[in-house]
Amino acid sequence: MRRLGQRLGQGKRSHGPRHRARAWAVVLGMLVAGLGWSAPAGADQEAGGLPEALDTLLGDSRMEGGAAGVVVADATSGDVLYQRAPTSRLMPASNTKLPTSAAAMEILGPGHTFTTDVLTTGRRHGSVLTGDLYLRGTGDPTALAEDYDGLAARVADSGVTRVDGRLLADDTRFDRSRLGRAWAADDESAYYSAQISALSVAPDTDYDTGSVIVEVAPGTAAGDAPRVTVTPPTTYVDVDVRATTVAAGGANDLTVEREHGGNTIVVTGTTPVGGSGTQEWVSVWEPTGYAAAVFRAALTAHGVKVTGATRLGRATPAAARRLASHTSMPLKDLLVPFMKLSNNMHAEILTKAMGHKVSGEGSWSAGLAAVGGYLKGVGVDTGKLRQVDGSGLSRMNNLTAGQFAKLLLAVRSEPWYADWYRSLPVACAPDRFVGGTLRTRMCGTPAALNAVGKTGSLTGASALSGYVKDADGRELVYSIVLNNYLAASVKPLEDAIVVTLARSTADGTAAVEAAPGARSAGADTDLECSWRKPARC
């Protein structure tokens, strides 16, 4: 077998003659699996070679007219066991988070933390602080309203009751570019496409920074306006309720969207009396102002009045002294919500943080150059890929299955590999912070609690890359990148490939079977399951 470090061929592997009976058994198995049926007990399909089995899977009608890049390798030796179009550049969607996260562990380090500080250059006169108050962020994507409340409490505990000055929000660690390159305009209101700032707020412990949770409940009677609550409670956003409560049994068709260019969130549609209403995660416009508003409200709640206005984007003077500080969890722990739930904002913040660390510039261009530097160091030819953001939200990203496989092999020798591996979703593990975006997939198969991998989803683009042990306990690296299909979902095909790998043996024997769970709950759409809130994966 060839090693992955050698040049990967453009085409699939060549195979010997096929036996007609074996081929028909494989095809029958796939037809059954594709329809979501389970094979009867004892109806295992006749075993053949691994390349034959994977070719059959990739010949599914759902991939007609589409493009597939697939590489499978022995994780220990690097020997390539299967490849199809390994050098074809395809849209990887959230598989882009694999190089971003690996580079972050190397460049920032597993122990890297983000700090949020309150500082001043003013002077104290009893309980009055004369001078400006600075709120300085370094990019913490996990900062909650309660963390800003803690900062305000420490200011109050120091004896300050009034600040005769302004509240200046310092987000200058990063540049002013808020949205990634070629991000879709119709995603702008969505929490998974939130604006990027060095100073922001997450509404809950999924840490979707730069967003609020809007909950809409029906009124008590038909004709009433629905009741709306925002988490965290903040006046930074305005809610324009245009929706109506209708009689019990009526339609629940609420829409919650933020208008472009501001923080007016419009609620439209109908919701029935006694109905469930809806809950939506919505991005805010200008997250720096959001953080400043939450902090100012916390100061007021703790009896500290700031007499001046709030100003954004002001750098903190070097001579300022610290009044309070909050430190985030270390990166090795942050990777868990980041990778398990495929958090786009974490990826972009880490990208800009890498740029600042390497070149002193918290920008996408500097951060992506840092990621590219890491990839070159592990043998990936960055002249043959295009990465324009950290998360994979942009449809301009182009990487190959061979590049992902090479990266997955290389990171196994890194000192931080165990922490990085722990962040990958685990097939059929029920805990959201273990199974993540694979939580409902491949259940009832040899891949359950065995396969780990990073998912990826955009319209017409789906990917899954990671590790799985075969039937003999041999660890395999796999990368599956599928593009340009018209089917509602090809995730069942990804699952079937990984299940086939889990069933294969070291001598190359493999069978395509109608494995229970090959078409699993949560795998019926190519939208990342963690993005379908509140019905989370």
Mean pLDDT: 89
Choose one word for the global shape: globular
| N-to-C CA distance | 38 Å
CATH superfamily of the largest domain: DD-peptidase/beta-lactamase superfamily
What gyration radius follows from the Cα positions, in whole Å? 26 Å
What is the helix fraction of residues, given as a range?
A: 25-40%
CATH-defined fold name of the largest domain: Beta-lactamase
Named at the architecture level, the CATH assignment of the largest domain is 3-Layer(aba) Sandwich
Strand order of the largest sheet: 3-2-23-22-21
CATH class assignment of the largest domain: Alpha Beta
Beta-strand fraction estimate: 15-25%
Number of strands: 24
* Total helical segments: 12
Can you tell me the number of structural domains? 3
Q: For the report, how would you describe the main beta sheet?
A: 5 strands, antiparallel
Poorly predicted parts: 6-46, 514-524
Q: What structural class do helix, strand and pairing data support? A: alpha/beta
Keywords: Carboxypeptidase, Hydrolase, Membrane, Protease, Transmembrane, Transmembrane helix
GO molecular function, one term: serine-type D-Ala-D-Ala carboxypeptidase activity
Protein name: D-alanyl-D-alanine carboxypeptidase/D-alanyl-D-alanine-endopeptidase
Pfam family, one: Peptidase_S13
